[in-house]
Hints:
CATH architecture of the largest domain: 3-Layer(aba) Sandwich
Strand content: 15-25%
Number of helices: 7
Helix content: 25-40%
CATH class of the largest domain: Alpha Beta
Strand order of the largest sheet: 2-1-6-5-7
Number of strands: 11
CATH topology of the largest domain: Alpha/beta knot
Order of helices and strands: EHHEEEHEHEHEHEEEEH
Distance between the termini: 34 Å
Low-confidence stretches: none
Shape: elongated
CATH superfamily of the largest domain: SPOUT methyltransferase, trefoil knot domain
Number of domains: 2
Radius of gyration: 23 Å
Mean pLDDT: 90
Structural class: alpha/beta
Amino acid sequence: MKRFDIITIFPDIFSGFLGESLISKAIAKRLISVRTHYLRKWTTDRHQTVDGKAYGGGPGLVMRVEPIAKAVKAITNNGIRITNKGKTKVILFSPRGKQMDQAMVKRWAKYNRLVFICGRYEGVDERVADHIADEVVSVGPYVLNGGEVAAMAAIEAVARLIPGFMHDADSQTKEDHPQYTKPEVFALRPLAISGKAISKKSKMLRVPKVLLSGDHAKIKDWRDKHRK
């Protein structure tokens, strides 16, 4: 079983994600285990403070290193900069990190356990990136409100590579060429959005003939040509 641990201040965000579709089925089949950990549990003040003003000034608040360090240590039963002999990896999600790609996902899939730290506010104390997380990762060239959506994307991407997760093993590495299904011909009627016509005539949208030919060599050539 592959285990995912998520450190977050919004654990309820994950309830719908974990309770639906293939992720829910994988949990039920004990292919994966996903546990959320409420970061405020590792604070010491009565307000359960996880953030503070940035030294040197600037807008917003920065997530503090202390509760994150305590959370990682408690979750892993080890400590800072731990990898459990290569079986565990700690990942901090941040817009400043290396962009996630399929090669990275395949590498993560080799670990027994992944610990995700979900940043929030203006960012996370840099000592988390420098001394606690093994990797700092971004899921794209844009800024999110926090790392929770990034963690969901990473869980789904990694889980797809686990034997038995997908109904069809070939779907693990879905090809990125155009695909079609019934009907062979679709009549697209005139459309209007907000009262403005975006097409004036009906269009007959047809599946490319080569895909209906039954000639597997030609189909492969067509897909290779149109692969992005």
